[in-house]
Amino acid sequence: MAGRPLLNRRLEGLGTTIFAEMSALATETGAINLGQGFPDTDGPESVREAAVRALREGRGNQYPPGPGVPELREAIADHQRRFYGIGLDPDTEVLVTAGATEAIAATMLALLEPSDEVIAFEPYYDSYAACVAMAGAKRVPLTLRAPSFRPDLDELRAKITPRTRLLLLNTPHNPTGTVLTPEELSALAALAIEHDLLVVTDEVYEHLVFEGAHHPIAALPGMRERTVSISSAGKTFSFTGWKVGWATASPSLIAAVRTAKQYLTFVSAGPLQYAIAEALRLPDTYFDGFREDLRRKRDLLADGLRTAGFEVYTPQGTYFVTTDITPFGEKDAYAFCRALPARCGVVAVPNSVFYDDRQAGSTQVRFTFCKRKGVLEEAVTRLTRLAG
Ligand code: PMP
Ligand code: GLN
Predict the structure, then answer these.
(1) Confidence of residue 13 (pLDDT cuts 50, 70, 90)
(2) CA-based nearest residue to 197, from 94, 110, 116, 126
């Protein structure tokens, strides 16, 4: 086996995901894990029970239909109508996937040719870079800069070339918490239409918007036929381990994405799909309560981090808060995060790894607040020791 590296060149440098690396560090050290974004409390009991019922009744224990069970596809279509007024045909315009992660992978593999360019905001969620690489395409980052993390649309326009195939959006945005405004979305839509670009929009934090509201770009005029919208039950219902996600788009886009998806997992999570169909029909009180709970936790952690000495960029959405460690005299977010468990018993994630422009995010560190109040309070107490 000498001579040639085992890992193909496309995947070179992707290594272990930072979330896995930091979670392993938390396990190793026993530190409070505010790194990887997963809740420390499971979602609604009724949804868990629905999964148990499906398992016991033998629904979904064998391969479910390729596009997802009809109950879930209908519930996804109804959810899009209920919250955004978007009408979808559950048979041709909805595809159930193994989390948003598979939806992103299948979409990139289906829609991209090797010479294509994909414009994505950086800091970007790590699977975007990996999936664009696996498709053999090229990522072109548009840097969101502190403190506002707004996209500069003139800069974006300047990055569009004849090879640009796709805009990859994420709103609410992980890790910065930026929520795109209706004006920004209209401008992005106009650019996509003018340059005949596809748009892929990752909206997994759609129900975690604290300032303003979530607006899907797919609802804008002229966008339906060029947009793939992606979401997931993991965040909204606090079942990140279930990996039930979906893509919605026009029939021709869904057919393309389904072609790739068939050969990735084919299908997944049969009984859980029935449970998520019920979850999507929970009353507004669930969605409102979930958001308000996380809003309180955002405020608790953001205030605590500020008191501890961090520069804090309060997020408009998601369950992450990005900070800057410059006030501690620190210059390297990755080294800071590696040392943090030993220094004070907390794990966080360095945003620097989500940038191609390493300088832009070199001192940024992300903390998640999807944890119990007492855990967040204890983390803040520990982090307060840093300044001393
Ligand atoms: N997109 C973003 C922006 C995320 O933060 C995550 C992490 N959950 C995902 C996609 C992946 O979602 P899933 O767990 O449903 O695959
Ligand atoms: N989305 C989660 C986060 O941003 C991590 C998911 C994963 O570990 N791949 O923290």
Answers:
(1) confident
(2) 116
